[in-house]
Protein 1
Amino acid sequence: MHIVVTIDVPDLDQGIAFYRDALGFEERVRPLPNFVIMTNGKARIGLMQKDAGTRPAPGSDDIRDYGRHWTPVHADFHVEEFEETLAAIVRAGGRAEQKAGGGALPDVAFCSDPFGHGFCLIGPRPEAS
């Protein structure tokens, strides 16, 4: 089994640019004009273009809103180069909203992409002394 977490974005090219520039993902396959699978090592994500204001499912009263929002499911990106990756996220248009960790805990940053989706950036676990 493998898993691909798919992220809705209002602009596919902008989504590809963010996840490439911020987190090092590369486009691998585009099975549909509005859907791309990107990889970084063994990690895979899908990006699917869905317009703001559209309904996520038939009969739903919800509409897609790409302002900053909370969701009960989010991605955690574990990286070796924490500070460098965090800076790349901000340069690429994401937000670093809060940092935590240190000491015996890995550095963690609570972030969001340019489309309002929250995610965590997690650095390496400090080595025991």
Protein 2
Amino acid sequence: MPRKPSKPCSFRGCPELTNERYCEKHQKEVDSDYNKNSRPYKHLYNSSRWRKLRLQFLSGHPICETCKRKGVVSASEVVDHIKPHRGDEKLFWDESNWQALCKSCHDRKTAKEDGRWGRKGRVYSYNFRDK
């Protein structure tokens, strides 16, 4: 089967030919930039304290709060912060700010808050700089 012809790297000013969006060098830079900027509070979610508290909370709240309000029974999978903490550790650990949601309800709520539907660039912005 014939292969698609190589095209220039999408990184501004790079003449390298590639079969992907970026050449190897710039793909590493873009991935690194994304990992640094996309989830700045990741360390809180990776802590053993959070993992233990999350499991305890979900075992005490097995049904999705949003679905329950609609009269639907679905298992909760995610501990959601009602008011987004945005790195505020006091708010992050405050159990009164937690609610149990199923994955689809959590994804819908987060997308609305983070500016996905119509308010682009608020949380998931990309900073492509010449290096």
